[in-house]
Amino acid sequence: MSNGFEAWTPEDVIKHNNRIKGLSNKVIPSQEEKPKKVSKYRNEKVEINGVKYDSKKEAKKAEELEYLEKAGKIKNLERQKKFVLQEGFRINGHKIREIAYIADFVYEEDGKLVVVDVKSPITRKNPVYKLKKKMMMYVHGIEIKEV
C-alpha cells in the first residue's frame, strides 16, 4: 500500500514540516549559513600554532607558560591533564561514570606540581567547578591555581 510520500525529496519534507509549523516554504539554511553560536560564557575559541584554546585568555597563559618552560623556570608543562576524582562503578546493573577534573595546565615548579585553571569571575562561581576544586584538594592534595 502506497502512502504517496515515496517520491518526496528532503526539500519537500522540510517544506511540508515548515507548513505544519506555520513557517514559510523556505528551505532551512545549511550549517554553513547559520549564524555563529555564542558560547555559554562568551569566550572566543582561538588557535595558535595549530593548538586550539577555549579562550584568548587561556591562549595567552599558554604562551606565558611556554616561555617560562623555555627559560627553565618551570618544567614538564602539560595541557588538558585529566585527574580522576572518583572512579566509575556499577550499582544495581547501572554503570556510573567516573568524576574527573581536566586542568588547563600542569607543570613542575621548584619540585612541586602546579595545577592552573584559567577562569573568569563567572566560571569561578560554577557549583560543579567549586565541588571539583574541593575534591582535587581532598583526593590529590592539590590546590588549583586560578588565573
Keywords summarizing the entry:
single chain; 147 residues; alpha+beta
Structural features, described:
This protein has 147 residues and is an alpha+beta fold. The protein has a four-stranded mixed sheet with strand order 3-6-7-8. The protein has a two-stranded antiparallel ribbon with strand order 1-2. A hairpin with a 2-residue loop joins β6 and β7. The relative contact order is 0.11.
Instruction: Please state the average pLDDT score.
Output: 87
**Order of adjacent strands in the largest pleated sheet:** 3-6-7-8
Count the helices. How many?
Answer: 4
Proportion of residues in β-strands: 25-35%
Distance between the termini: 66 Å
What can be said about the biggest beta sheet?
Answer: 4 strands, mixed
Helix content: 25-40%
Q: Radius of gyration from the CA trace?
A: 24 Å
Structural class given helices, strands, pairing?
alpha+beta
How does the overall form come out from the CA principal axes?
Answer: elongated
User: How many strand units?
Assistant: 8
Written as H for each helix and E for each strand, in order along the chain, the element string is HEEHEEEEEHHE
Structurally, the number of domains stands at 2
Q: Which stretches of 5+ consecutive residues score pLDDT under 50?
A: none
